[in-house]
Amino acid sequence: MTTYERIVILTGAGLSAESGLDTFRDQNGIWAKHNIEDVATPEAFARDPQTVLDFYNARRRSARHVRPNAAHVALARLEADFPGSVITVTQNIDPLHEWAGTKNLIHMHGEILKALCAHCGARKPWEEDLTVDLVCDTCHRAGGMRPDVVWFGEMPYRMEEIYDALGACDLFISVGTSGNVYPAAGLVAEARAAGAYTVELNLEPSEGISMFAEAIHGKATVVVPAYVAKLLNS
Ligand SMILES: [Zn+2]
Fold first, then answer.
1. CA angle 86-109-223, nearest 5°?
2. CA distance 76 to 1
3. C-alpha 133 to ligand 1 mean position (Å)
4. Cα separation of 30 and 221, whole Å?
């Protein structure tokens, strides 16, 4: 068995792409077809809430009909079988990590299958479309029900916990992340500063590749199960 004791895994859109979910930043990704300023900011929600809700209603419908792939399953197996601690931090808003069985999970950009009341902060599981006339069943006010996702200009969730985990980890694995979106892009630097060994598993070299001690490039459903098997058998 390895000498590692505490693993932090950071995952991004490249992990879920092979489950059939559109990525955001690729050439043909979601941001090539929609303006961020129109659909993914608090200002857009204030100005034209139904357009924002419809954008995320489409994302929610897609997320409900996909299944975890072999890479999600391998990462869940790593968490289950590794004798030390494993924390998975995901930038993905889809539910595929938890559907694969991952338990110790931080959704730093929120979850598409939850709604958040902008008036009172209540969060609830949500599978149907959101509309502007919905009434929050906690505070009974209308017009505030939004997807529980972190918009541009908002603070990612649970950053203190994430930095604590990075400061204590001895292995950091980045899976399917482009490495150009902060604060996620800065997480590898935190892990390095803490003395962790850093590994990139990605379809192609990311923008942050110089921060990694090791990089393995290929399809997530191929390279992730192989890397997990090696880690668990070494
Ligand atoms: Zn409310």
1. 50
2. 18
3. 13
4. 22
CA of 129 to the centre of ligand 1 (A): 17
**DSSP element (H, E) containing 198:** strand 197-202
93-133 confidence digits (pLDDT tens)? 999 999 999 999 999 999 999 999 999 999 999 999 999 99
Q: Which amino acid is at 35?
A: N
Distance in Å, CA 136 to ligand 1 centroid = 5
| 3-class secondary structure, 195 | coil
Helices and strands in the chain, H and E counts: 9, 9
Amino acid symbol at 160: E
Residue ranges near ligand 1 (ion) with Cβ within 5 Å: 117, 119-120, 122, 136, 138-139
Pair of tokens at residue 86: 């494993």
pTM of this prediction exceeds 0.90: yes
